[in-house]
């Protein structure tokens, strides 16, 4: 796995011209970028530290945060570039930077102060919630409610999770796709509303708009199912608000990292459910925990095996690891997958267990649900991907030309091409261009109509940031559709299709292909996973697992055996101190 960059010369922008000694050497070797070096030298100048070993450790910590870690593990850092001339020791403890609180040194981990504060806050807020007296439960009422929600489907595991959650203020509900997390949440809400006699205020939140919408829809559908055996349940639960975490906390135009709701202005909700919690970064988790009233209920839902958040931290998997073995653990795990086809499940399980031979065996066993296209050269990959990609793009295009936005949006969820990278031969950008070209050839329109016009009819869209004024959110999908002879953009919302003059949507990308990171929180019937080369820095087990578990009925993996083995062998490791903190308290 390549961790370093290769400087292209002394004028490479990643080279800090003013660096000397160790910092210069690690910069020239491609370990540190110029910004890592500058932050460390600036901190050193402000804090009166000139020991180059300490400055190197600080620069490496900046680098670690840039790559998603919360801190730097000095015990293992040499593995980044074993051949370099590493200091014999790290005189951190007596550094004036530690004395001044600019950096924190704890359990062999070095933190920038901001991340140390965040991590301890998350830990302390969770510990405070766990230390509160548990919520009162009317056990007879609970038993009666459980008997009513048992109608339809409800496994023993799901029931146990509901019972545990009813007795706690904090619950971490984990499980892979299709393990009935939403089903469980809906029944939990009915049980909690029944305990309260109605009148609970409930927020259903998620990191992206798409995931929040999906959660709200799924919970409402499940509540309707519950209502067949328990007609009062729907009324007891009442309204459920589906919203992004940003919106829940009160986005502020003047501040990107602070919200309207905080410790001094807590959220009014009695119950807050957060779906897709694996995508929640440490900063956001800190903001959420401080904004919750201590006596409110928090239900974090997610799959800890998925890719971690884009920003620093790996909070969900840290919580699962940190609480493991603790008698007061708030983790309730669902393990039975009710949705995916047998062979997709087998592939996901082999990946979860980390056995590359098993993964390859599943991939190579003839199956209706799993296929493996073992190709490496670009022409062969293109030939393998073209038929399905074009058929999917064509189906969207046909609905779009027929002025049928709902059908076009439905088609989007039938097939998805997933790439690890944005750029390069295995990247989304290249594959978007290729599919556009192939589509133009296929449907016989002038190539420039598809390739040259940004808003061509049939263009699948992925919204890439929240746009509150337009009611359009990061992760939502859309299509450009013909309407009365003009191109209009339609975005799928929770209750309706949202229609726009295309130019109003500025933060959108074409979605013939999608990155695996962006695909979190969504599924498609058939998924093609294009694995990058084995040397790719992004190729990890978590990435592969996330991609495979996006598929409902068929997953096709395109790549080499070496890439599969590299993915299975590589964990998306992030240094954080949260598990140890939780385990130790
Ligand atoms: N106990 C059960 N028996 C049979 N089917 C079930 C059971 N629980 C849930 N299901 C069904 O399995 C499917 C997946 O359930 P659900 O959507 O609740 O899972 P999920 O874990 O929330 O999935 P995702 O990760 O995609 O959000 C649904 O069709 C649901 O109706």
TrEMBL record:
Domain (RecBCD enzyme subunit RecD N-terminal): residue spans on this chain: 29-85
The keyword Iron-sulfur belongs to this UniProt entry's keyword annotation: no
Enzyme class: isomerase
Presence of keyword Hydrolase: yes
Catalytic activity: ATP + H2O = ADP + phosphate + H(+)
Single GO MF annotation: DNA binding
Gene3D superfamilies: 2.30.30.940, P-loop containing nucleotide triphosphate hydrolases, RecBCD complex, subunit RecD, N-terminal domain
Pfam family, one: RecD_N
Record keywords, A-Z: ATP-binding, DNA damage, DNA repair, DNA-binding, Exonuclease, Helicase, Hydrolase, Isomerase, Nuclease, Nucleotide-binding
Annotated positions binding ATP: 175-182
Domain of life: Bacteria
NCBIfam families: recD (TIGR01447)
Note: In the RecBCD complex, RecB has a slow 3'-5' helicase, an exonuclease activity and loads RecA onto ssDNA, RecD has a fast 5'-3' helicase activity, while RecC stimulates the ATPase and processivity of the RecB helicase and contributes to recognition of the Chi site.
Role according to the record: A helicase/nuclease that prepares dsDNA breaks (DSB) for recombinational DNA repair. Binds to DSBs and unwinds DNA via a highly rapid and processive ATP-dependent bidirectional helicase activity. Unwinds dsDNA until it encounters a Chi (crossover hotspot instigator) sequence from the 3' direction. Cuts ssDNA a few nucleotides 3' to the Chi site. The properties and activities of the enzyme are changed at Chi. The Chi-altered holoenzyme produces a long 3'-ssDNA overhang and facilitates RecA-binding to the ssDNA for homologous DNA recombination and repair.
Subunit structure: Heterotrimer of RecB, RecC and RecD. All subunits contribute to DNA-binding.
Protein's name in the database: RecBCD enzyme subunit RecD
Species annotation: Nocardioides agri
């Amino acid at each position: 796995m390549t961790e370093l960059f290769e400087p292209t010369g002394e004028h490479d922008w990643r080279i800090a011209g003013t660096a000397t000694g160790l910092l210069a050497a690690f910069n020239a070797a491609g370990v540190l970028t110029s910004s890592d070096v500058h932050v460390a030298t600036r901190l050193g100048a402000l804090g009166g530290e000139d020991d180059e070993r300490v400055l190197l450790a600080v620069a490496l910590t900046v680098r670690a945060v840039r790559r998603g870690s919360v801190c730097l593990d000095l015990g293992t850092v040499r593995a980044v570039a074993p051949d370099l001339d590493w200091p014999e020791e790290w005189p951190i403890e007596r550094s004036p930077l530690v004395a001044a609180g600019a950096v924190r040194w704890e359990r062999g981990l070095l933190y920038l102060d901001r991340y140390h504060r965040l991590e301890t806050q998350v830990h302390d807020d969770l510990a405070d919630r766990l230390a509160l007296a548990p919520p009162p439960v009317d056990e007879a009422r609970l038993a009666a409610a459980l008997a009513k929600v048992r109608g339809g489907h409800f496994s023993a595991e799901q029931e146990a999770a509901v019972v545990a959650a009813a007795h706690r203020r904090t619950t971490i509900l984990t499980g892979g796709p299709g393990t009935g997390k939403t089903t469980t949440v809906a029944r939990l809400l009915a049980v909690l509303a029944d305990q309260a006699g109605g009148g609970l205020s409930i927020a259903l939140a998620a990191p992206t708009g798409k995931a929040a919408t999906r959660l709200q829809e799924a919970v409402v559908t499940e509540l309707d199912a519950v209502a067949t055996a328990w007609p009062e349940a729907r009324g007891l639960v009442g309204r459920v608000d589906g919203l992004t975490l940003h919106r829940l906390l009160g986005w502020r135009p003047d501040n990107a990292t602070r919200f309207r709701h905080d410790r001094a202005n807590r959220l009014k909700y009695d119950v807050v459910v957060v779906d897709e919690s694996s995508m929640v970064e440490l900063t956001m988790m800190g903001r959420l925990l401080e904004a919750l009233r201590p006596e409110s209920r928090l239900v974090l839902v997610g799959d800890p095996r998925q890719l971690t958040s884009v920003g620093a931290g790996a909070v969900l998997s840290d919580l699962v690891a940190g609480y493991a073995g603790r008698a007061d653990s708030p983790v309730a795990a669902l393990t039975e997958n009710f949705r995916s086809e047998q062979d997709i499940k087998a592939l996901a399980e082999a990946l979860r267990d980390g056995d590359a031979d098993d993964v390859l065996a599943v991939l190579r066993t003839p199956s209706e649900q799993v296929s493996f296209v073992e190709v490496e050269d670009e022409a062969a990959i293109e030939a393998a991907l073209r038929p399905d990609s074009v058929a999917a793009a064509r189906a969207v295009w046909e609905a779009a030309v027929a002025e049928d936005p709902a059908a076009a949006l439905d088609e989007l969820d039938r097939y998805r091409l997933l790439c690890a990278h944005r750029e390069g031969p295995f990247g989304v950008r290249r594959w978007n261009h290729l599919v556009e070209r192939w589509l133009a050839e296929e449907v016989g329109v002038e190539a420039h109509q598809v390739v040259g016009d940004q808003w061509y009819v049939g263009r699948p869209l992925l919204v890439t940031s929240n746009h509150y004024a337009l009611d359009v959110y990061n992760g939502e999908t859309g299509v450009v559709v013909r309407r009365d002879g003009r191109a209009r953009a339609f975005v799928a919302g929770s209750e309706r299709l949202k229609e726009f003059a295309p130019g109003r949507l500025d933060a959108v990308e074409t979605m013939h292909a999608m990155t695996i990171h962006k695909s979190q929180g969504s599924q498609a019937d058939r998924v093609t996973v294009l694995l990058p080369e084995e040397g790719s820095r992004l190729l990890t087990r978590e990435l592969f697992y996330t991609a495979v578990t996006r598929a409902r009925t068929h997953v096709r993996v395109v790549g080499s055996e070496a890439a599969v083995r590299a993915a299975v062998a590589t964990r998306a490791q992030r240094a954080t101190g949260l598990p140890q903190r939780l385990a130790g308290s």
